[in-house]
């Protein structure tokens, strides 16, 4: 692909981001990649079928329009699902485990294959378990590169890593220390890596049944089992696991699927089996879940993995280069170039991986040494300007609720007692002043209120802030907390 096309793609993403807003962009488009551009057709890819169908049914025209804004000749967007195994590899050595990436459980009901037709990695350590081809249970095997050995620990992920290691090394029958473990972080900060590392380690332990599923596969498995009337088998498989790992929970869809997820969660926790969940937001911000599930999720250990510091980025790069060198001995990236990438590519692990893959490809294809000039040219589009931190309404609600000792549910409720009314008005005022949301949208996010109620709250607080210094200072302190 030419630099020109990449630059155009970066501009198209910029248009999309501006049109749909950061939240929607990072939920649906952050993992969309440009595969090729032909005269009238642009080929894009996403990692999952779920993303593909969602984007096709909700955003197809917008994506096309954004392309046409850059390149009027484009008539068609071709969206495909890229396979996990096709990702350009900066390969790490296979983890030292004799267990196959995917094996069929001896005890899993035969319907398992159809129940999960589509994906999910089942890591099972039973030594006698017969190996099955990945297709026999459907789905992508765990990525052999995503292990604890390749997970670099830094300030932003120490706690999540320690919790993951602890539960990965537990034995069947050990008391469960925190259940569920709920890990949340923005795109590309290592959630999948951590969950798959747990699956690999559980697999190597050889004693417990560990099931790794993306939420999308959970939905798919459940819906297929309904269609084929094998829901009982579906439930049995889930509940017969010792450790259930659910990735990308924010993608869980559908009322009956939520109910099934809720039953599974309760049944697993009540039976003392470990559940680990990863999502891009904290449990309280998962809008579609009912309050009981949300509070069950929040009732275990909730850990956020923050953005990478420069040190961590550099260490990740160094470890990637070391892995790559085991296959490409002449791949040499001078220390100043690595330091430059660590300083400039700040967004997430995927961009770091992308930057190194480009240098590796360049070095393999041209045989030329990697210089600073080359690196600057190759990774130009991965260097994103630091955007001011965007504040989310859910964050405002969470922080205001905590400060005034009420629950977020209180803020959204119809309660009119003074201890709830004032914090609610403050939260609405902050939502109006710190986000770009409209009054009706804010009203909707505050329990379906009318926009005039929001307007009243905003005016009320504006009036009070002018007269009440203590309140003004308090609101400034909340703003600082939100923008830190
Ligand atoms: N601490 C880390 N050490 C080494 N590599 C990391 C680390 N964190 C992330 N990465 C790498 O960054 C890339 C993206 O990570 P991963 O897929 O786990 O992110 P994610 O949080 O699951 O993203 P998403 O929200 O898009 O699902 C992967 O290549 C992963 O190996």
UniProtKB/TrEMBL annotation:
Swiss-Prot/TrEMBL keywords: ATP-binding, Cytoplasm, DNA replication, DNA-binding, Lipid-binding, Nucleotide-binding
Pfam families found in the cross-reference section: Bac_DnaA, Bac_DnaA_C, DnaA_N
Pinpoint the AAA+ ATPase domain residues.
177-303
Transmembrane helix found in the keyword field: no
What quaternary structure, including any partners, is listed in this protein's UniProt entry?
Oligomerizes as a right-handed, spiral filament on DNA at oriC.
Which organism is the protein's source? Answer: Rhodoplanes tepidamans (Rhodoplanes cryptolactis)
Protein name in the entry: Chromosomal replication initiator protein DnaA
Q: Which parts of the sequence are annotated with region: Domain IV, binds dsDNA?
A: 364-484
Q: Which family does it belong to?
A: Belongs to the DnaA family.
Q: Does the keyword Oxidoreductase apply?
A: no
């Amino acid at each position: 692909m030419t630099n020109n096309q990449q630059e155009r793609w970066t501009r198209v993403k910029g248009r999309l981001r501006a049109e749909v807003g950061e939240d929607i962009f990072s939920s649906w488009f952050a993992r969309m990649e440009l595969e090729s551009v032909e005269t009238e057709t642009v080929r894009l890819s996403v990692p999952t079928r779920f993303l593909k169908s969602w984007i096709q049914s909700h955003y197809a025209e917008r994506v096309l329009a954004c392309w046409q804004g850059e390149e009027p000749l484009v008539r068609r967007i071709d969206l495909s699902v890229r396979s996990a195994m096709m990702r350009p590899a900066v390969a790490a050595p296979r983890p030292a485990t004799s267990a196959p990436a995917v094996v069929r459980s001896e005890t899993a009901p035969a319907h398992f294959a159809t129940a999960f037709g589509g994906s999910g990695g089942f890591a099972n350590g039973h030594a006698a378990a017969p190996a099955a081809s990945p297709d026999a249970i459907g789905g992508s095997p765990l990525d052999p590169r995503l292990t604890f050995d390749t997970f670099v620990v830094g300030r932003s992920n120490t706690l999540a890593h320690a919790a993951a290691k602890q539960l990965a090394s537990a034995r069947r029958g050990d008391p469960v220390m925190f259940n569920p473990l709920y890990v949340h972080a923005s795109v590309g900060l290592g959630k999948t890596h951590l969950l798959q590392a747990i699956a690999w380690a559980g697999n190597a332990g050889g004693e417990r049944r560990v099931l790794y599923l993306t939420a999308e596969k959970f939905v798919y498995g459940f819906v297929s089992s309904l269609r084929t009337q094998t829901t009982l088998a579906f439930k049995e498989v889930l509940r017969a696991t010792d450790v259930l790992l659910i990735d990308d929970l924010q993608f869980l869809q559908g009322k009956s699927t939520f109910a099934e997820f809720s039953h599974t969660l309760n049944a697993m926790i009540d039976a003392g089996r470990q559940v680990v969940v990863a999502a891009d937001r904290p449990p309280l911000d998962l809008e579609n879940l009912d309050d009981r599930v949300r509070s069950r999720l929040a009732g275990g250990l909730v850990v956020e993995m923050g953005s990478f510091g420069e040190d961590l980025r550099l260490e990740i790069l160094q470890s990637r280069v070391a892995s790559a060198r085991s296959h490409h001995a002449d791949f040499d990236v001078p220390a100043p170039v690595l330091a430059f990438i660590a300083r400039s590519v700040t967004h997430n692990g995927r961009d770091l991986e992308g930057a190194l893959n480009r240098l590796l490809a360049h070095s393999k294809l041209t045989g030329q040494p990697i210089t600073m000039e080359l690196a600057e040219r190759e990774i130009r589009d991965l260097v994103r300007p630091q955007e001011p931190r965007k504040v989310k309404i859910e964050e405002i609600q969470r922080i205001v609720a905590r400060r005034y000792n009420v629950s977020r549910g209180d803020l959204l409720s119809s309660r009119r007692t003074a201890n709830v009314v004032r914090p609610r008005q403050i939260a609405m005022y902050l939502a109006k002043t710190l986000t770009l949301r409209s009054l009706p949208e804010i009203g909707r996010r505050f329990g379906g209120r009318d926009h005039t109620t929001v307007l009243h709250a905003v005016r009320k607080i504006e009036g009070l802030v002018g007269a009440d210094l203590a309140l003004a200072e308090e609101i400034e302190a909340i703003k600082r907390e939100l923008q830190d």
